[in-house]
Amino acid sequence: MYNLKEVIAEKPSRFTAGHRMCAGCGAPPVARMVMRALKKEDHAVVAGATGCMEVSTFIYPYTAWTDSFIHTAFECAGATCSGVEAAYKSLKKQGKLPEDEHTKFIAFGGDGGTYDIGLQSLSGAMERGHDMTYVCYDNGAYMNTGIQRSSATPRFADTTTTPAGKVIPGKTQSRKDLTEIMVSHHLPYVAQTIGVKNFNDLYAKAEKAIYTKGACFLNVLAPCPRGWGYSTDMLMEINRLAVETCYWPLYEVENGVYRMTYIPSKKLPIEEFLKLQKRFAHMFKPGNEWMIEEFQKEVDTRWDELLKKCEMSKLN
Fold first, then answer.
1. CB neighbours of residue 225 within 10 Å
2. Within 10 Å of residue 192's Cβ, how many Cβ atoms?
3. Of 40, 71, 171, 291, which has the most beta carbons under 10 Å away?
4. pLDDT digits over 259-271, tens only?
């Protein structure tokens, strides 16, 4: 049974203090908890795609990572991590590494380096079945380079490349469902979770992904105070509302079997999540009510589809 106090006491943080991520950022808790899911005796090799996490945690000669860390380009975190995993297996086979040495391979990338630029190398690594875990910290835009829209950016969001105004109402396209794309790769384990709200959910899924043989994928919501436009002390609340409105469902797919890991006792309307973020402020102006209605319809449709998949898994 997971106990936060026991985990923190027994497992020193492998993602240390002193990094330069923004106050109120959702990414550091993701990295810290994922790395804590490792067994104390195991070593990790972490590949970090260019992005907020990399430029703020690994500025040579300083690092916030206690395990081996490889800075790799935006587009190739999946390829880099899979290449290191393949080299490790070869060295083991050649007897150049001790049999009792255990190393785990973990890649971190933001949504820009995962949903978009790095999708090809991620897909290749997953399809080849490398024994690795890819973690996407999804903050819904290219935050590191100026808050440009990505395919993870939700519809109607105001970004520097989709500015809400008289011409367009923010981003006009719907958000890509990368978790489902990864499920279609027929991986042994895929999960969607959240960085700050339910540490039990994140820790349990990270541990399962890291210690499941084969290629595994975690999609973790990681809010950004600069890009989303919320007060830094609202991180916990933003995460809570993302889950309680069903904007970001918590579920896992293990060998093709869907399982919801949290269902809100009372599903909240989506405006509770939207109204705390400046990127959606224009949706609450008179005459723009249709945007909230459209957003709610999309959330409801995706939630209902997911529930059906979970129910079908139970029947099978």
1. 22
2. 27
3. 171
4. 999 999 999 999 9
Structure tokens at 200: 């039990």
How would you classify the pairing of strands 250-254 and 189-194?
Answer: antiparallel
Residue pair 121/107 in contact by the 8 Å Cβ criterion: no
pTM metric for this prediction: 0.96
Quick check: bond before 61 cis, omega within 30? yes
